[in-house]
Design brief:
By secondary structure, the chain is α+β, with helices and mostly antiparallel strands. Helix content is 36%, strand content 28%. It has helices at 16-31, 37-45, 49-58, 97-113, 127-133, and strands spanning 6-10, 61-67, 70-78, 82-88, 117-122, 136-137, 142-143, 149-156. A hairpin with a 2-residue loop joins strand 2 (61-67) and strand 3 (70-78). The N and C termini lie far apart (49 Å).
């Protein structure tokens, strides 16, 4: 039996419940153990289906990755430059899904807005993933306005031949 092919698409508002389930599962397993109870509780409230649906309707772009009919990854980007959500289901990690999801998200932002500089705030467990994707820390770990301990990171893409600065 062959492996299902990874397919990706943009999220629609009705995808919000499935996105919320995936994000909450990954957050509970990987993010919350390194955070204060209060920060974790606040973060979980910001990944509810209602909240995510509103963000999709407001224009945040969420890219979804599926293996067969199973949602295995999600990336959410604000203003075509700031990655606000990036999660791959625990059982599907280590298969290159994160890299392919990031590359799709990045290509979409470049196509839409000509973006060359991407930013994010990484939780401790995610820093190694973002380093492998080409991001670099721009400062030490800090407490963000919402209480999560994060490391600010960025990626600046080089100008290629034939492009204007």
């Amino acid at each position: 039996m062959s492996q299902p092919t990874l397919r990706m698409r943009l999220a629609k508002p009705e995808d919000a419940p499935a996105i919320a389930v995936l994000v909450r599962r990954v957050v509970r397993r990987w993010v919350l153990p390194d955070q204060s109870h209060e920060a974790g509780k606040a973060f979980i409230s910001r990944v509810s289906a209602r909240f995510l649906r509103e963000k999709i309707i407001e224009g945040q772009r969420f890219h979804l990755a599926y293996l067969g009919e199973v949602l295995v990854g999600v990336s959410g980007i604000r203003d075509d430059c700031h990655l606000v959500h990036f999660f791959v289901s625990t059982r599907y990690q280590g298969r290159g899904i994160a890299r392919r999801l990031w590359e799709r998200t990045m290509r979409d932002a470049i196509r839409r807005a000509g973006t060359r500089r991407f930013t994010l705030n990484a939780t401790r467990c995610a820093v190694p993933v973002y380093l492998r994707l080409g991001f670099r820390a721009t400062g030490p770990e800090q407490v963000a306005h919402h209480g999560l301990r994060v490391t600010p990171m960025k990626m600046i893409l080089p100008i290629t031949r034939g492009e204007r600065a």
